[in-house]
Amino acid sequence: MAKILAAVIPEPHASVEVREVSEPELEQGSALLEVELSEVCGTDVYLQQGRLAGVPYPLIPGHVSVGRLDKIRGRMSDVAGRPFAEGERVTFLDVHRTCNACWHCLVAKATTRCPHRKVYGITYGLADGLTGGWAQKLYLKPDTRCIRLGEVDSERFMAGGCALPTALHAVERAGVELGDTVLVLGSGPVGLSVVIFALMRGALRVLCIGAPEHRLEAARKLGAAAALNVETSDEETRAGWVLEQTEGRGADVTIEATGAPVAVVQAMRYTRDAGRVLIVGQYTDHGEVSFNPHLELNKKHLTVRGCWGSDFSHFYRGVQIMADPARSAAWSLLKLDRYRLGEANEALADVAAGKVTKALIAPQA
Amino acid sequence: MAKILAAVIPEPHASVEVREVSEPELEQGSALLEVELSEVCGTDVYLQQGRLAGVPYPLIPGHVSVGRLDKIRGRMSDVAGRPFAEGERVTFLDVHRTCNACWHCLVAKATTRCPHRKVYGITYGLADGLTGGWAQKLYLKPDTRCIRLGEVDSERFMAGGCALPTALHAVERAGVELGDTVLVLGSGPVGLSVVIFALMRGALRVLCIGAPEHRLEAARKLGAAAALNVETSDEETRAGWVLEQTEGRGADVTIEATGAPVAVVQAMRYTRDAGRVLIVGQYTDHGEVSFNPHLELNKKHLTVRGCWGSDFSHFYRGVQIMADPARSAAWSLLKLDRYRLGEANEALADVAAGKVTKALIAPQA
Amino acid sequence: MAKILAAVIPEPHASVEVREVSEPELEQGSALLEVELSEVCGTDVYLQQGRLAGVPYPLIPGHVSVGRLDKIRGRMSDVAGRPFAEGERVTFLDVHRTCNACWHCLVAKATTRCPHRKVYGITYGLADGLTGGWAQKLYLKPDTRCIRLGEVDSERFMAGGCALPTALHAVERAGVELGDTVLVLGSGPVGLSVVIFALMRGALRVLCIGAPEHRLEAARKLGAAAALNVETSDEETRAGWVLEQTEGRGADVTIEATGAPVAVVQAMRYTRDAGRVLIVGQYTDHGEVSFNPHLELNKKHLTVRGCWGSDFSHFYRGVQIMADPARSAAWSLLKLDRYRLGEANEALADVAAGKVTKALIAPQA
Amino acid sequence: MAKILAAVIPEPHASVEVREVSEPELEQGSALLEVELSEVCGTDVYLQQGRLAGVPYPLIPGHVSVGRLDKIRGRMSDVAGRPFAEGERVTFLDVHRTCNACWHCLVAKATTRCPHRKVYGITYGLADGLTGGWAQKLYLKPDTRCIRLGEVDSERFMAGGCALPTALHAVERAGVELGDTVLVLGSGPVGLSVVIFALMRGALRVLCIGAPEHRLEAARKLGAAAALNVETSDEETRAGWVLEQTEGRGADVTIEATGAPVAVVQAMRYTRDAGRVLIVGQYTDHGEVSFNPHLELNKKHLTVRGCWGSDFSHFYRGVQIMADPARSAAWSLLKLDRYRLGEANEALADVAAGKVTKALIAPQA
Prior knowledge:
4 copies of one chain form a homotetramer. The first copy, chain A, has helices at 42-49, 103-106, 154-160, 163-174, 189-200, 213-221, 235-245, 261-269, 293-298, 312-322, 344-352, and strands at 3-8, 17-22, 30-40, 65-73, 89-92, 95-96, 118-119, 137-140, 146-148, 181-185, 205-210, 226-229, 251-256, 271-279, 289-291, 303-306, 336-339, 358-361. By secondary structure, chain A is α/β, with parallel strands linked by helices. In chain A, the strands form 4 sheets. In chain A, strands 3, 4, 5, 8, 9, 17 and 18 form a 7-stranded mixed beta sheet that branches. A 6-stranded parallel beta sheet of chain A has the order 12-11-10-13-14-16, with helices on both faces. In chain A, helix 1 (42-49) packs across helix 11, helix 4 crosses helix 5 (189-200) and helix 4 (163-174) packs across helix 10. The two termini of chain A are 22 Å apart. The mean pLDDT of chain A is 97. At the C-D interface, strand 14, strand 15, helix 9 and strand 16 of C face strand 14, strand 15, helix 9 and strand 16 of D.
């Protein structure tokens, strides 16, 4: 049986190791994907640092990936019912097993909170098989939702990567309206994709507060009207800057994508009365933060929404948008850095240090 | 010229004094209201304690009131264009001068945040005339929005009082759906009216956490399925109680009406994933509170809304509901305590101590 | 093998026959339900008349039913993951096989338009097994969504029947607000449940136009403020009556539940400017109707929604409401008529003639 | 007193005449606008044809206009409270006197249905003064909502004209989501601005069915992915074309902007299940149309909205967007034809015949 190389995090805090894994036998309705590109995102850094609860080590990271269907057993179809063929380029929703049978799925219709969902590269571990993208091949279990890439450019798609559905969900749930001024807190991959989607959704001006400078430069290239460095400004300067940019009112919509608890309070503070705040940067536990609910929430008549995960609809539309050369042009402006499987530790270190905008693993290289 | 008795707060921390005020000359489109009942609410306590910024002392408290039109100069009409006549019983929206010309009114459509609005009994002071309900007569300035009481019982209406539009706004903005379990934090006048409106809007079960015991008893009488005393329970007990009452999930909707900053965080904590939280109890500044935005907002995919003030639509529909004997029956269960003008200090003390459910000033007594 | 009696429509226009069917072998995760009560609704009349396209005759009618779990093979769980036991009283969502894999389910999130869904008693035929409630036993296929009845009274629940989730869906989608005047067109089972739910959702006044008189009487008993007989009034009278009941403006919300195309246009006409119209009565094709889109739609700034089917969330919450004696009391006012399996033709005739408010089949009688 | 030239429609069906009007005396808070450009839209054609009810002839047409403040009496301020100065270039909301005191304004919050509103150039006639833009000067009555043009190019703004707020309102109310396919019926000024706004709001593909060919060409230049000539295709061809363009499902959103009643039904037919339909083309009464409410509304689970008028928020944001050279670039692609006051009849004829995309009156030429 053929051997497949995969990059594995053996346990929290341990370095990534490249291991040989046996090619699995395919179940009915499953497939083997020859991975072309997979991504390295902030979550992968946290996985290596052991900051996520309930993760089954050892595991192969890499949740959003693109590749070529190497082998299919039985029938796998897209949402229109068209069967996939071996050799086709596809991506897939990293979330698997949303159950469609529990209270969260069926009554609350909050499928991203379904307790049965599993995520490739995060909550599936090596014991579940080749379930991460940092590997030459990935096992697409039955009922994995795949999408044909067609004319979608792999690099451009991966420039969005897991930030693509996350940011689309955030902008949609934030309720951006035509003519809005949208403030984006954070200039990492999610923040930058939020800049693009906020403009795509009709924001007239998008402002960005983030760091480091090369990412603010990226935000400006993507269309942000103004950007401020969070590291070289104090709170008073930032608050004043936002007011100055918004005729003294604050942003119509603020989308937080930073990871820092304090940014949640800033998001409320920088938003105008009766505005909307969307929190999408608090995916891991970084502790508490203090705020004044009279001044920053009740009196301002704000709407503040948390935004967890994304579903097939966000992912599907993200891919559709990527298939349009004009609509997806902005993502081609984002700089990508490629790493081989054996360079995964270097990739994690570069992402952790904010040295790169977007790191990709190219397992066949 | 006739003299009119009015209860006046001369300055922060000073006792209320009954003063004689001259009857004003009426402008075109204005009227003089013979006050039948006015209310004493938590805001009046804060006014006396000097806790609201920008309030023009001396002032006559009493924002929501009912009375009889004593004199009208020129024409005053209701929203259907029907003119009012002297002798009719009316109430009026305490908010005046929402400008319909500023950015907040016209672009954001956030009229409760219009910077030009004035509130009778709160931001209008004695220098503006007889502008509070704790007086024998009140001056209804031009463009004050009056509503004919018709068959509405004065006592029943005042049992709702300013809590009526506030609670209606809160329940509507919270987005209660048919079959929801709604948790109400707080059992003061707003909290109790929220219990009523949540049931009226289709909540299947309403839970209440508040104090003191006589108000929890009131909540149960109004239809709350269960109530817990916040003073005799610790955080773990409360959180456990909510889970027990909600099949382990938390409330679908939580409405905070307490005044305590910590309740804002509890509201998030006690709400189920993808649920809705409405904050309407933070009308004055009681300082900061600390929370974990990962655990209590982002991961839970919550929607949290601040709710400031109310507009004519909330007030009008509140009065319509009060005109229906069956729909408004619940308010008749609330105990009222009446005070004369000269007993205003006692009324404030009783409200501050939570000794009464609802205190009213009867200026003609 | 035991024989089971079932009432079967052999083909369009043919009379119902009682046949003997063999007890099926149970698949893993399936069960056999001993049917206590099943309903006879307007759809069943249409089935017998051959008015629904794509229906697989012969078939056993009866989509919403209650009964006792006679045999279970393997594990069947509720939405909270609790397994069902033999002997428990349950009902089940008549819609089966919503696929959770197609564009309608996953991208549009329009699950009631999933092309793969099947409905017990309507689009499942006898060839699919014991798939209708007009039988001593019904086969609950794997992945049928069952709900434990617990304290829910079977008769009261069946007084709602299939109208329960349909009406709940309609009232929710119509967007009824606190204080609204809601006009219901139609006084059949759906119309009457709409009256109840509109009041439960906070409508201040519910008006009803329908027929015959005994159903209008039922509407009044359920809380309708006024009711008009559609058969004894002409269009001018009706339009004038609505204006008179609504201060000359029209209803805030109109919900059409009649089956007559002309009622769709009346629904628009009887609704106030910027109001909401919900169409839930056009489940079968009764042809075309003519309207003036300038006067009745565009100039009025209406929102008109079609409402197709219902999903598990509507059904589940309907059952929860039925478990509350106070909340479900209104349904106990509806008169029920019971028929034995052998009386199915009589039941259909009585429903078709509007002679009964609600007909039930009691297969064990 | 100076004489001012104005183009007047004396009565229905009469030709436009240029008349001399005396310069008015200014009330407090009013101004005289030296008109730079005013537009000729479909409504003006209907005015001349006498197809609008309740219009006070004689009247000066021209509702949306730009010009320079010639004289101001007293103070006129913008929504931020900043006073206007003589000499400034401005435009103004053509709707005046939305009352902020009636049931429609205050309870329903349906200000575009306020019965007291007046529209410059349409429901204001010559008896009300210089109240239309087809004049050298226009009288800005007190409380007219003006907006400073600043860097906004007059021609580009007028390329939007009254279609700008109308189309923005339509696209917003239609609820276009990121990735949607939007079908626009009609390629007149409103339809073309809808194409632009639908793309600005995040539609991935915009389709257009209209005529004549030069306007379809304009739609394609503005970004429409495909366009079909309504005059050279039959219903079957059109319906087939839409399915072909939408993977067999129909458009996610269809916006009707044609004026033809039949297009309302086509809009429903061409939209996918659970999609959204927006009707903005039925501003005048062109009679009835027939449709099947089962097939085209209820079974499809559609949302169909009428959209009447626009308010200050739509107009203000339209101007803000026009102030951004990149965001407004599309409108610069629309061909404009200028006419002098004395050529108003020719302008009307060319618009009626669809010979020009957008006709402007330049009163100073």
